[in-house]
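#help-structures
NK: newbie question, is this the right format to request a structure? protein is CHAP domain-containing protein
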Amino acid sequence: MSGNTSRFTSLALSALLAAGLATGSAQAEPAEAGKATAPSASSVAPGRQQIVARADQALTKPTKYKVTKNGSVRLSKPKGDNNYLGGRNLNEYNDYNGQQWCGHFAAAMWGKRGVPAKYQASQQWRTGLGNRFHKYDVRRLPQPGDVLVWSDNADVRFGHVGVVVAVRGRTVTTIEGNAGQGTDSVTRRSYDWNDTRNTGGPYIKNKKFQGFASPK
């Protein structure tokens, strides 16, 4: 082998090694430290996908409700991100009992499986599920199918819940019952997970965000 050929071969091998090292460095580059990431849609477990599908359907399907306790049953007319159910808390989710029904709605979206014993009360989603409730931490995002929990500033025995249907970056989107138009609708909302009002997390006026509950 001539001296020129030897030098050429040596240079070629050096170039290949350098390219390989650069590629390896790019592949091994870690994610930004301390930054929470959401799972991709394809990685969401089938049970969670079913919860999201139920919530999407609840937003768009005609739903039974009444405007008086002994009145006739009507069907709602969903429109966009709101499915208004008459303004009287009389609907198929709470069996027309006239009471607050966000907990009823969340339980229905979970298929009544793995729900708190007293799911009708919003704060049972915080206190009645043991280690399946996760206190708010800005570094830990919920997943589709989880239930967000707020308590009222005036009385922590009461509050609100909503079902997570999407997480994109730091934006969490829910479909909730007993919200929206007339506070008596199934409605879609989006929240900033990094919101710093109140004590942090998804913001609703006069409420404190507590965290989220996860299905079994």
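mod (FA): yep, format's fine, and the tokens are attached above. The longest helix spans residues 3-28.
NK: thank you!
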